[in-house]
Amino acid sequence: MAETARRSRNEQGEILTADFLETCRGLLPILDNFGTGFSIVRSDIGGNIDRLAAAQAKDLATYTTLFAIITDEVKGGKQEGKTSDTNALLWLKRATEFILLLLKRLHDDREVALPTAASEVYYQTLNKYHTWYTSAAFTVVLKFVPSRETFFAALGCPGEQMMQDLQTLFDSFEPLLQDIQKFLAEHNLDFQWKV
């Protein structure tokens, strides 16, 4: 996953659609280890990945870079709405940022409990985009995440190698998310409506 994130740019530094989406898909199995309550989150992320992959498939030569999809959608005036590719990228960025920051929190503080870290990161990232109802539901889901030990054991051989792999993932994936956020903000596409 970290290797795919590392090669997610072309020579001009633009984010390559297929590699970026492959990296995002690599995060999906991690969500399975957060418990059954995260199945809706996994489904949303998977749906957004599929939406962007379908957009790319319409014209593989034109849409080799991620922002080309969004730029064309904006030119057509179709960027707003829950079924737009822009909305898919926006929520994919937000959800993967939540996952990445949660893993980073667990990496940086080897003592923090997973439910505590998940709650902290949720309120830092996704909560501001959720209605009261969605926030209440998400808060309940966060109470049922497994222990830190169970979570890391499910990921595979917990230990220093895993922590190094996580650091490599952060180092390669965070800059992609930062570039996406910058692009969305610069083009007034960081929609603040709540779900």
UniProtKB/TrEMBL annotation:
Domain Glycolipid transfer protein: 15-156
SUPFAM superfamilies per record: Glycolipid transfer protein, GLTP
Keywords for this protein: Transport
Cross-referenced InterPro entries: GLTP_sf, Glycolipid_transfer_prot_dom
Protein name from the UniProt record: Glycolipid transfer protein domain-containing protein
Species name: Coccomyxa subellipsoidea
Lineage: Eukaryota, Viridiplantae, Chlorophyta, core chlorophytes, Trebouxiophyceae
